[in-house]
Prior knowledge:
By secondary structure, this protein is α+β, with helices and mostly antiparallel strands. The chain has one domain: Immunoglobulin-like (Sandwich). Helices cover 22% and strands 38% of the residues. The chain is built from three helices and nine strands. It has helices spanning 5-21, 80-83, 164-183; strands at 31-34, 37-42, 45-52, 69-77, 86-93, 108-116, 121-128, 132-141, 147-156. The chain has a five-stranded antiparallel β-sheet. A four-stranded antiparallel β-sheet has the order 6-5-8-9, with no helix packed on it. Helix 1 (5-21) packs antiparallel against helix 3. It starts with a helix and ends in a 7-residue tail after the last helix.
Amino acid sequence: MKPSNSLLSLAAAAGLALALAAPRAEARGALGYDQEMCVLKVGPDFLYFSGYQFATSQRKFCEDVPDVGETTLVFDLAQDELRQMKVDFRILRDGGENAEGAPAEGATVAYLPPEIYPKGTFSFVHTFDEPGNFVGVVTADGPSGEHWVARFPFSVGGAPKSKTPFLLLALACGLALALFFASRPKKKKA
């Protein structure tokens, strides 16, 4: 049995919707994973990153902040080179950068000024008062003129952006199953 025109139209519409939504699935900037550790690439070097909300859980996170409230961010500078550089960190509202990548006026939510961390570890505490989308920006400036910037988008207290591709995949699988069962030939009763 051939699928009906309405099923083909539904499949085409769903495919178009998935294709249009797919480009909006964002990369996580310079943030990645290494053996279940969050790694942020800063220039040619790496920085390990973890977040905590001790008031609600002892569980660490590295991408999206689960809830509003006090959040502790911990950074470990992996290479000695970064430990000799001035490192700063800022949190911007999503879309809070101008065309050159500099923070737009009023977009900075929190800021940790540049400092050298010879022991390689620093932490930062910020209280998020409302949910939303933000961008973390780490800047490292070296004694020989190096200037490295790493950005990573994240959400606070909402549906994590990183789950968008999985939701789209689940929708596509559900549609494929529905089309498969709808197009199967019906058994004739004797």
